[in-house]
Each structure stands twice: as C-alpha cells, then as structure tokens.
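Let us practice reading a record.
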Amino acid sequence: MALSRGGMAAPLPLLLPRRLAAGAEPPENVVRVPWALRLRLQRGAQRRRRGQKEAAAAAPARPGKLLLRSRRPELSQPRWQTVGRWERPQLVSAGWKHRKACGDYFQLEPSQDAAPALPAPPPPDAEQGPSFAAMGLQPALLAGLEGLSIGRPTAVQRLAIPALRRGRSALCAAETGSGKTLAYLLPLLGGLLSRPEGPAEAAAAGPASPRGLVVLPSRELAAQVGAVAAALCRPAGLGVRGLTGGGAAGGLRRQLRAPGPGAAVLLGTPGALREALRRRFLALGRLRWIVLDEADALMDDSFTEALEEILAHAPLAAGAPGPAGPGEARTQVVVVGATFPAGLSQTLGKFTDVGRFVTLATQSLHRLPPHVQQKFVRLKGRDKLPELLQLLKERPASGGAVLIFCNSASTVNWLGYILDDHKIKHLRLQGQMSAAARAGIFASFQKGDVSVLVCTDLASRGLDTSSVQLVVNYDFPDTLQDYLHRVGRVGRVGSKAPGAVVSFVTHRWDVDLVRKIETAARKRTGLPGMDSSINKPPPKGG
C-alpha cells in the first residue's frame, strides 16, 4: 500500500517481501510498507466494511410482499429475493434445538390466491380449453358430473383422463386436494361403459365378480369415494358396492348382495377384501381395472400382506400393460397418491410389469401449497395445550372447521377429555376405535354438525375436507410425507377459502424436518426425499 500526501492509502500492484533473495535487485515503483502500518490499514478496512453492512441492515428493506415472515425481521424473505440452488439460506429454525429458542416462530405467506390444481380462468375472448366433453367422456358421465356441480377439469384431470382412456397402466401422482378421484374414476368408468357386459354375465350366479375394483386404506375414504362413484354411475346404470370390515362375515355377504344393480364397481379396504376372497364371496376373474388409492398408506405394514393377497387373485400377470389388440382383455392397474413409498415397485413387480407403467405427475407435486399460510411455532411441550386453547377460543364462529392432528390414539383421547373440560364441542377419530364407534363420525364432521375434529393421520389421507379452514399440528408429523398430507386438508379444490396451518414444534427431531421445510420454501423447490416414480430400481442392499 502507498500513502499519498494526505495520508490516504492507495492500492499497489505488489507488496515487496521483507527479504529479497541474495543478489536480487528490488523491482522498480514499489514502496515498502511497514508491517505494523499494513495491519493498521487492514483493520481500518475491516471496520469500514462492517459499518457498511450495519448500515445496509439498518436501511429500510425494499418494499414488497413477503415469502417468509419471521419474528426477527432481518430473517424475513421477500418474494423478490431468490436463493440459489447451492446457496445456504439463513434459517429462522437454525437455532431451534436450543431451549432458548422457545417462543420463536416464522410463517410462510401465501403467494397466490387459488390452488395450483385449478386451471387459470381464461380471458373473456379466449376459449375455455379442454372440457370434460372434449375429452371424449360419455354423456352419462357428463350427466353425473353435472349432478356433482363440477364444470371444469383440474390439472391432474386434464393430464390423466386422456392417458387412462387409452388403457395404459399408470402411476398418477398429484398434490393433495387436486381432484385425483375424478381423474381416475371418469376414464375407467368410461371404459366399462364402452364395453358393456352381456346379460348372461350380469346374471351369473356365484360370488360377486366386479369389473372394476378400488382399494382404499380406510372405511371413511371408501365411503367418500363410493359416494362420488355412485353419483357418476347412477345415470349410466352401473352398480357400485362398498366393502368394509369391522363386523361378522355375514356382513360382508350382505354388502356384496345389497339390492340394486350388480356390483360392476367395488370399493373396499384391504382387510375386508381379503376376507371376502378367502370366504369365496368375491372373485376377481372378470376384473378390467384395479385402482390402489392412497398408495403410501396401503403400503403400510398393517396392509401389505392383505394387499399382496388381493393382487395375487387379480388377473394381472396375464394382463400386463402394453400394446393390445382391440379384442384382447387386459387388467389395467392405476396407482394413485400424493406421495409414494420406496417399496411400491417391489410389491407391484411380483404381479405385473411395472416397467411399462406410464407416470402422470403434476408440476406442483411434492411442493408446499403456495396458497396456504403455514406457521411454525417453537414451543415447550407444556405450552402446547394453552396455545391450542387460545387458538380455538379466539377463532371466530364463522371461521370454518378445524382439524387437530395428533400422532397417537392416546393423545387424541387425552386431548378430547381436556376439550370436554373447556366446553369445546368436538369429535374424535382414531384407528383404535371400533367400527361402530367410527361409523358416521367423519360424515357428521363433513356435514358441519361439529366444527372441531381431533384425529390421527387416519384423517390425513384423501378425505374431502373442503369445509376445513384451519389445521393444527398439535404433534408435529413424523415425516415430510405426513406433513404434505396434513397441510393438504386445507385449500382444496372446492374450498371457499385457502385456509391456514399452525404447527407446534417441540422435539429436536421435529426441528430437523422444519429446517428441510424452511429451506424448500426459501428456495421454492419441492420437499427433499420424495419419489414420484415406481420405475426406479430398488436401492442396493434394500
């Protein structure tokens, strides 16, 4: 560094080392700077840079809406700010494993008004885009849609209906609340209508022999999908049956032989279907298609054995998907869900060629819903109950229904007793309840008889909760998949308001998941560790 007459430092191209090699001549135009002076100048430069940073932090932030709002304003992120793919953002939750972080919070602000599953409204002078009628659906199905007051297809429906009408087996992956039920029911029911069964087949005696089968993980979801299927099938004259367990074997026979048209379409839970097959109340030899809805829940250890037994009875091996002649009968397999387990390809691979499945995935898959406000609050365990009670008591009567998620049945029961003590009317739903106790609970909640439901993840898969405007994760979910399913209970297609989610973060392992969620939100990427393909090979050693 060289000093000018005024004492200011001027940059130099080179600083001479203290000692020169023997016999070497010093280069020209170089000024020796004493070591102490050099250090003093460096410290001054560091102080100036530090002052510039402090001034920038104290300066008013660039105006605009926020993507992430923090309790500490300096950690908030405006929408205009972009975090690079390899950049490490400064996280609000970075220090949340320390006990002093209790009381801290941040929230993800909505960046759009409507769910991404809904098509954008076209300009007044533009065409409406592909409609249900333009997709080639039969008039009977269009009449059923009209009865359900459904007019425009969602993103996943525009993607899946044409592909499934071609008869290909498929993996249908889309975000929660996007209309996946209609996406698979409409083309598959259309296939049954285009190839009606003969009078002799319809009147054949013996076990029930449906031509379409939907496997679902819970009786509540089976009842909900069954109601939609019945509304679509009624104008077409197709019979729909539901098969759920929890009762005596005679109950299974009565469900399959209920009065009305024959069971062209059957919806059932794995346990009930397996029991009906074992007792020969049910045969799958005439099956034209099979749907595995909410596949990640069906791959739970409690369902895997029953599911494999059902797939073994279905004519899948001879009807592997692929090019087929017009008269060749094949069983079409459709796997549906918002998230998929790692062992899905191995299970299906025992019965059919998963390499020929076509993958139908939406662009918003595995992303945090951009239209739902999501708040994360770091709390001590003892503070969760007062926080929940305050949320419920401050909520206006017109604020819509509330879902409160717990990780265990015992917590659901305990929290229910506390709400009883505080005169808060509510319902409870958890898997350890008997079939009789569970019957009608969710239907009563959907009708609006009671606006608060305390539940386990039993209510996070597939159930239509369009009246829900607040989800509270009293217990933070165990996995990112569970978080996506829970947050998908609000802001669904058909909801009047986008809704909000509040999550209580108490354990150190909860913080690990929150950091991944916050990083994905700041970078505007999907959540890590999600797989939307069943064609990938299994992991080595797995």
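A brief commentary: DSSP finds 17 helices and 18 strands in the chain.
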